[in-house]
Design brief:
alpha/beta, binds NADP nicotinamide-adenine-dinucleotide phosphate, globular, Rossmann fold, seven-stranded parallel sheet, 6 helices
Length: 248
């Protein structure tokens, strides 16, 4: 699918920043890349990219703040004018690696706020803008949809795959994200908006750590390939960076 406009959260570093870089460098790059981050003033990598790519717009977003989400919708809609949004990637996330002895109510709730509730509320807020895109475009190129939401999850959210236990924060909040994504996929199917759940693999970022298996450039290149090849029959599925279906 040609991504005419893209909004990505957590875009100032790690996987989010790499998505921005690679989408901007595509031969058919999006007309608009909206890179949302908590602190645009300090987003030096994004600002440097903005000097080369006029289609990059840096936006403020604290994903847990209702007003911040509302302001983002207003700002993105104003830039898009009559156009809709083609792709929303809910990428911002946290990992606290809470083991049984570390769990606190506050940290668990914060993880759910960031990893599950925020992507749901951001998706909800952008549905009208995505719908505009799904209604506008002349054809769907055989993909069966014209707008999409991609939620970045993790293999460790798979209940089937969990044989080592622990990591209560991430496993549970991302499993909730998977269920939210599945519901979104059912609710948004009539409007021809695809919803996909992607596991980036174990990636060398601040979150993944230096011992991770994959370079961020490799993970993101593979995920972009998966995104570009998604068809409506894949909506609501849990896929890895190579497009392989993962068990719930
Ligand atoms: N790296 C891996 O191995 C791995 C594996 C599986 C899944 N994932 C998932 O991939 C996604 C990206 O991870 P990453 O490895 O790139 O992590 P990262 O380098 O730690 O980056 C996390 C991003 O999320 C943003 N963020 C966190 N809380 C936020 C909030 N409340 N409001 C706005 N932005 C917020 C951070 O912004 P600040 O800079 O402002 O903190 C940062 O941009 C996450 O959803 C993660 O769960 C990663």
């Amino acid at each position: 699918m040609y991504v005419k406009s893209l909004l990505i959260t957590g875009a100032n570093r790690g996987i989010g920043l790499e998505f921005v870089k690679q989408f901007l460098k595509l031969p058919q790059s999006p007309q608009w890349v909206f890179a949302a981050c908590r602190n645009p003033e300090k987003a030096t990598d994004l600002k440097t990219l903005g000097e080369t790519y006029p289609n990059l717009r840096i936006k403020q977003l604290e994903v847990t703040d209702r007003e911040s989400i509302k302001d983002l919708v207003t700002s993105v809609t104003s830039d898009l004018g009559e156009e809709g949004l083609t792709l929303l990637i809910n990428n911002a996330g946290c990992l606290k690696r809470l083991q049984l002895n570390d769990v606190t109510q506050e940290e668990m709730l914060e993880s759910f706020q960031i990893n599950s509730v925020a992507p749901l509320c951001i998706s909800q807020a952008f549905v009208p803008v995505l719908k505009k895109s799904s209604l506008q475009s002349p054809g769907d190129g055989g993909y069966g949809y014209r707008a999409a939401i991609v939620n970045i999850s993790t293999l460790t959210a798979s209940i089937t795959d969990n044989v080592t236990g622990g990591n209560y924060d991430s496993r549970t909040s991302k499993a909730a994200l998977n269920m939210i994504s599945k519901s979104l996929s059912v609710d948004l199917k009539p409007g021809r908006i695809l919803v996909s759940i992607l596991d980036p693999g174990w990636v060398k970022t601040e979150l993944g750590g230096a011992g991770a298996k994959m370079e961020v450039s490799d993970s993101v290149a593979r995920m972009i390939k998966v995104i570009q090849g998604l068809t409506m029959d894949k909506t609501g599925t849990f896929l890895n960076y190579d497009g392989k279906t993962l068990p719930w």
